[in-house]
Design a protein that fits this description.
This protein is α+β, with helices and mostly antiparallel strands and 328 residues long. It is built from 10 helices and 17 strands. It has 3 domains: 66 residues, no CATH class; 126 residues, FAD/NAD(P)-binding domain (3-Layer(bba) Sandwich), CATH 3.50.50; 123 residues, D-Amino Acid Oxidase, Chain A, domain 2, CATH 3.30.9. The protein is globular and about 60 Å long. It starts with a strand and ends with a helix. InterPro entries: FAD-bd, FAD-dep_Monooxygenase_BioMet, FAD/NAD-bd_sf.
Length: 328
């Protein structure tokens, strides 16, 4: 198997991931389970209550991929077009270089290039009408002994989600947070991150004007209570936040011939579902099972039959929240 990675794989692209141990056990082989379990700690192989940091999960899975002799990861490959014929599928880079194989699977996120081939009538995920500012902070001592999942705090018409993060040693010393914000769509349109109903990219920290960070700090001072307020303000002050326009994609199909999509490429959903990673892992496990011992097109058809209803259910549930929250 060849994995084409658009980046060098060393960039921070998220804050927290809720890991389902049962799902990982099903999706990973024995060696990969051992590597991931060692990297993330014993809690990673149990049903999670707290999420892990995005970087810890990525690093563990990447280590497992690098240790697998049947997997080759090729970095900095920018695929601009995909296609297929009767016997092969292919992916083409911007410079014309082409990769071919029996099957092509797109796990290329909400802006999926592969999705354009799978469903030409509906190639683009929709902007959900709000942004989530994501950050991490040190967990306050007053919260260290608390057990349970995330907390949600309502502002005037926005919301703060707070969730302790599991360290690699199984301890809990940090928390991640997401500030759900329906007010800055025009800003993201102005800087080119949103065009019409399509999210073009997640903006870099320096693409957002300084006065917006100052505004968010003032709003946090007024809106959020301690022990969270200080950590949120400090993250904005240090520019250690990721401003993420939220997208949603409700799939009608996830397979076309010998090409398929999974994860956010197949079913982008609001982080309020708390199940994006879990659903992607379920996709991977279903794909492996469906493709085992059968022709490629038959296997992909089985995958779509096994997963499409659940994909649609998850996205639809999230859309109900988004429409209410964003007022669309």
């Amino acid at each position: 198997m060849t994995v084409l990675e658009r980046t060098s794989g060393r960039t921070q692209r998220g804050v927290a991931i809720l890991v389902s141990g049962a799902g990982l056990r099903r999706a990973l082989g024995r060696q990969a389970r051992e590597i991931v379990g060692t990297a993330l700690g014993p809690a990673s192989m149990r049903q999670g209550v707290y999420p892990h940091s995005w970087w810890d999960v990525y690093s563990a899975l990447r280590a497992a991929a690098d240790a697998e002799p049947l997997v080759t990861v090729v970095e900095n490959v920018h695929i601009v077009e995909v296609g297929q014929d009767d016997i092969t599928a292919w992916a083409r880079e911007a410079d014309g270089s082409t990769w071919t194989g029996d099957v092509l699977l797109g796990a290329d996120g909400y802006r999926s290039v592969v999705r354009r081939w799978v469903d030409r009538a509906r190639p683009v995920a929709d902007y959900a009408g709000y942004v989530v500012w994501l950050g991490q902070s040190e967990l306050p001592e007053s919260y260290l002994d608390r057990a349970g999942g995330p907390d949600f705090f309502s502002g005037e018409d926005d919301m703060l989600a707070v969730y302790p993060l599991i360290d690699r040693d199984g301890g809990v010393t940090r928390y991640g947070w997401g500030w759900f914000d329906p007010h800055h769509t025009s800003l993201f349109q102005r800087i080119g991150a949103i065009e019409g109903t399509e999210v073009k990219h997640t903006p870099r920290v320096d693409a957002i004007p300084a006065e917006v960070y100052e505004e968010m700090m003032r709003t946090a001072e007024q809106r959020w209570s301690e022990p969270w307020r200080t950590g949120v303000i400090e993250a904005f002050q240090a520019r250690e936040v990721v401003a993420t326009p939220i997208t949603e994609y409700l799939p009608q199909r996830v397979v076309n011939g010998r090409i398929g999509v999974l994860g956010d490429a197949a079913h982008a959903q609001t982080p309020m579902t708390g199940a994006g990673f879990e659903e992607a892992v379920a996709d991977a496990a279903a794909l492996a099972e469906a493709l085992d011992g059968v022709e490629v097109e038959e296997g992909l058809a089985r995958y779509e039959s096994a997963r499409l209803v659940e994909m649609r259910n998850r996205v639809s549930a999230g859309q109900s929240f988004s429409r209410s929250f964003a007022g669309v």
